[in-house]
Amino acid sequence: MPNNLRAANKYHKIVDRLELTRSKVESLLASRKINLNDVEHVYVGLFLRAFAEFEALVESVFVAIVSGSRKSTHTKKRFRITPSEQVQEIVFREKKYLDWLPIDGRVEERAKLFLDPPKPFLGLTDQQELTLKKYSKLRNALAHQSEYSKREFEKYFRLEALRPEEQTPTGYLRSKPSGTLN
Predict the structure, then answer these.
(1) What is the predicted pLDDT for the residue at 180?
(2) C-alpha 28 chain-centroid distance
């Protein structure tokens, strides 16, 4: 199985397990074995885990293309890095981690530097870019809880028809049908 399919399958398996946990927690709430506050804490953890795993997937695909361990029909690496073990060190440029979402100027710059053309990291539709940006704002609102992150959440989610109890980050997560965030 190609590396990209393996990485995507791994991600889907993780998300499936997270969905099972979400379903169990909702059942426990329905049977009054846990309270809503407990459920909301679990939702935060589940979303942050799914988001982190998606970022890891984006990173692993990028590094795999640049190292040559993954072939892409959409792009090719602009130059060869040898030994290939140094790809991560060169891509990361002495940083311990890189931001991969939302796909913005930093990721675009990185993709243009290493890939020709810089796909699949550029060329997303406006809707795809907006979706990634919205979920990055949701992630920040859950992880940081600063006034700025709360305002950004409200800015990106205010156009959605949300009931009052859904107008918070955790309320928004609970309002989504199982396995969806669209």
Answers:
(1) 60
(2) 27
Q: The tokens of 168 are what?
A: 């918070």
Provide the CB-side half-sphere exposure for 31 (13 A, CA). Answer: 6
Report the interhelical angle of 36-67 vs 126-144 (nearest 10°): 130
Q: In this structure, what token pair is assigned to residue 62?
A: 């990028």
* Segments of the chain with pLDDT less than 70: 1-4, 177-182
Q: How far apart are CA 105 and CA 64, in angstroms?
A: 21
Residues contacting residue 20 through CB under 8 Å, at least 6 positions apart: none
Find the farthest-apart pair of alpha carbons in the chain and give their distance in angstroms, rounded. 59
pTM for this structure? 0.87
Amino acid at 115: L
Instruction: Indicate the pairing of strand 115-116 with strand 76-77.
Output: antiparallel
